[in-house]
Every structure is written in C-alpha cells, then in structure tokens.
Automatic annotation (TrEMBL):
Recorded family membership: Belongs to the cytochrome P450 family.
The protein's name in its UniProt record: Cytochrome P450
Naturally occurring in which organism (per UniProt): Halapricum desulfuricans
UniProt xrefs under Pfam families: p450
High-level lineage: Archaea, Methanobacteriati, Methanobacteriota, Stenosarchaea group, Halobacteria
Annotated InterPro entries: Cyt_P450, Cyt_P450_CS, Cyt_P450_E_grp-I, Cyt_P450_sf, Cytochrome_P450_Monoox
PROSITE patterns reported for this sequence: CYTOCHROME_P450
Keyword GTP-binding in annotation: no
Keywords: Heme, Iron, Metal-binding, Monooxygenase, Oxidoreductase
GO molecular function, one term: monooxygenase activity
Entry keyword annotation includes Metal-binding: yes
C-alpha cells in the first residue's frame, strides 16, 4: 500500500477549508488535474479523501456499498432538515423506507405521469409573454415543485404555501454553503445564520404539517381495489399500520419537497442557459420539439433523442449534486492508499464529469458526444449517484426534464446576456449565483 495520498498545501487552523469555501468547483477541478486519483484534504472535522477514479468510485457505490455509510457530519444541520428521510437514513430504516417508496416510482407508472407533467409545463408557458424577463431558475423551481407535489404528495400547493417555500429556500440553502468558520462552530451556537436557518425550517415545517393534515384520511386502505400510490398515501397507510412515526412521515415529506424538485429545476435551468449560448443546437432542439404532434406523450418522449442528450450533457457540465460523500465502516484501500474507518470519502461529480482523462474538450457543451460513448468508464458520469443508494427518482427526473423542455421549446426561445462559465453558488446543490434572468422570445 502506498503512503499518504498527496495533499494541497493548506493554512494553519483552516487547512484546505478556506480554499474549498472560496470556490469549491475550481478547487475540485484543480485537485483532480494536479494530484491524481486520490487526494487527501483537510476540510474540517473529518479526514477527507477525494476520489476521482471511476473504477474506485464504482467500488464505493456498488461493489463495496455495504461497507460505507453517509458521513457523521451530515447529522448536524442537514440532519435537522431531512432527518431520517431517504437521503440520510441508514440500515434497516433506509431499507424499510426505500421499499415503501419504490412502488410510487415504478417504471410501469412513468407513462401515467407524462400528461400531468405536460399540463403543469403548459400552465407555466401560458403565463409567459413575448419579451418578458423572467428568472428561469425560479420558473423551473415553481413548475417542478408543482409537479412533485402533484405526483408524489397528491396535493396542490396554495399560493401562500408556494410563497412560504420559495421565501425560505434561500436561508435554508445558505446554511449549507461552505464556510470555514462554520466548520469549527457548533451548530447550537445562536449565530445569525443559525437563527435564520431554524426560523426558515420552522416555516417549512408548517407547510409540511398542512400538507399531511390535508391528506390524512384520503390515503385509502390496503384492501382497496386501486389505492392511491403516491408516496404520501403509501406512507400514511404505513402510519395507519403503526409502521411510520409522525417524525418519519415529516422527514420523508420534507425530503420529497426539496430533493424531489431541486435537481430537476437546476438541470432545466442549466439546459436553457447552454442552449441560449449555442443557437445552432437550440434550433435543432426546437425542430425536434416541433416534430411532436399534439400533446407531449410518453411515446413521444421516447423518440426525443437530441433533447435527451442535451439534458445529459447539461448534467455533465453542471451536475446539480456536485459532490457526494461516503464514510467507510472499516479501514479500506482505495487507489492503493489506506483510508481509515470513519474518514470522509468525497466523490466529486463536478471534477470527474470535467476530467480530460474521460472527456474530449471537457468544458465544451457537445450533446453529440453521447452518440458514441466508446469505452468510457461507467462512473465517469454519475449525476444520480449509483448502487443501492442511487436517486430513487432518476427516471422521473429525466422524463420530467424532457417533457418540460419540449413543451417550452415548441413555443419560446430563451435569451441570456451571460456567456462563458457560470458563477455558481455552492450549497447542497449548485445554483447559479443571482438566479438565471432570461428574456422570453415567442417563436
């Protein structure tokens, strides 16, 4: 086994935390290109190893998945937010919740979702006017939030509930931006950021309580011929059987609300930005969308070759989840180095997706690269994670993104003054700093 992996020079007390906090995207890319497949980082409370070899990433996520858990540091503020929902739970709790939720996301149900997604997309487009300036990130957030609430919670948010969620997403997101001072500050310290975060969390919990109360009693019964199969109905029936606590129910609804819309909204936001800066590809996308006659059906989506590739390429260049972590439950060997039990293993989609080792001209937007993937390693691209903990909603997310993009492209072009690499705001997911203002052009 080789000695300790290379480590970029850090600062006293802060180690590499300030470098990472200043610009995690540039830092991750620099580490991948300068130090190789395994890099030792000093980012705070846990010894961290950044892993960029796709074969080793596959081992962590699939072959040796049973030997890894989510890191302990995710049990702090994020634990307050998501609790024992599917994203953070472990062991028997995760297994039970995943098995409960699986039927709601079954492939056999996807075709039933298409009309609902298209209706929400069309309702959004019907409010747009030629020449309007809109924050497209906000527009995509609202439509994907409406979709996930409809499909997985079977509720329609009121205007007040939608505004409450929107107003509190920012202070919640800010709490998870990299901050070297926060690394050494306990979560219980009543800093201004911590107070804003908990106030926002209280507001969000209020909406969640309203949603659960509205749905209670409408979830159907196990012996019904065709009981509702949205996630919330399934969980409410489990609660009726004594298999779901009120807190567990709350944790899952929060997870669905936040994780269920955020990544799809960001994927669409970056897709529109990239298309606006590549008009020849935008015109080809419009031609493919125009070829869809009538409503955007599930069968039509299966024929959307270019639009699917645009979405894949958008998630390669701007993966909404730009890094994930695992923690070994015993000493392991990765890339020839010993990684001790309890360390944090960082798997950075951002750096791997842009590595010249696996991608020609990696910073270039080129949807046609997906026509022939050659012998590229499987985990050179993993926007939805992988293995047993892969994103449960990945097929729904792809369907949703294709339906919304097609619906919009048939009626509008979206223009932007921004060019080049975006300035990103790192939180739990990667957001464009300042939103994504764009001008609507009716076709």
């Amino acid at each position: 086994m080789r000695p300790t992996p290379p480590q970029p020079k850090g600062e006293p007390l802060f180690g590499n935390a300030r470098q990472y906090a200043d610009d995690p995207f540039r830092f991750l890319t620099a580490c991948e290109r300068s130090y190789g497949d395994v890099v030792s980082l000093d980012l705070g409370p846990l010894e961290t190893y950044m892993l960029t070899d796709p074969g080793e990433i596959q081992r962590v996520l699939i072959a040796d998945a049973d030997e890894y858990i989510k890191p302990d540091f995710q049990d702090d503020a994020i634990g307050e937010l998501l609790g024992d929902g599917l994203l953070l739970s472990e062991g028997d709790v995760w297994q039970r919740q995943r098995e409960l939720a699986n039927p709601a996301f079954a492939m056999t149900r996807l075709g039933q979702f298409t009309d609902t997604i298209a209706d929400h997309a069309q309702a959004m487009v019907d409010t747009w006017q030629d020449g309007d300036s809109r924050d497209i990130e906000l527009e995509m957030t609202q439509v994907t939030l409406d979709v996930i609430c409809d499909l997985m919670l079977d509720v329609e948010l009121t205007h007040g509930q939608r505004e409450t969620i929107r107003e509190n997403l920012e202070p919640i997101g800010m709490r998870f931006e990299p901050d070297p001072i926060r690394f050494i500050t306990p979560d219980w310290v009543p800093t201004p950021d911590n107070r804003k975060y908990r106030a926002a969390l209280d507001e969000l919990d209020g909406v969640v309580s309203e949603i659960i109360a509205e749905r209670s009693g409408t979830e159907g019964h196990e012996d019904d011929e065709d009981p509702p199969m949205d996630v919330l109905s399934i969980l409410l029936r489990a609660q009726n059987r004594g298999e779901q606590s009120a807190k567990q129910l709350r944790d899952e609804v929060v997870t669905i609300l936040l994780a269920g819309h955020d990544t799809t909204a960001l994927t669409l936001t970056y897709s529109w930005y990239l298309l606006a800066n590549h008009p020849e590809i935008e015109r080809a996308v419009q031609a493919e969308a125009d070829a869809v006659e009538g409503p955007v059906t599930f069968e039509a989506v299966r024929q959307l070759d270019l639009i699917e590739r645009v979405i894949q390429e958008s998630m390669r260049l701007y993966p909404p989840v730009y890094v994930i972590f695992r923690q070994p439950t015993r000493d392991v060997e990765l890339g020839g180095y010993r990684v001790p039990e309890g360390a944090a293993v960082m798997l950075p989609q951002w750096a791997v997706h842009r590595s010249p080792d696996f991608w020609d001209e990696p910073d270039r937007f080129e949807p046609d690269r997906w026509l022939d993937q050659g012998d590229r390693p499987r985990f050179a691209y993993f926007p939805f994670g992988g293995g047993p903990r892969h994103c449960i909603g990945k097929h729904l997310a792809m369907l949703e993104a294709q339906v919304i993009l097609t619906t919009v492209a048939r009626e509008f072009s979206l223009d932007t003054d921004r060019e080049g690499e975006l300035d990103l705001l790192p939180s739990l997911t990667a957001h464009p700093r300042g939103g994504m203002p764009m001008t609507l052009r009716q076709r």
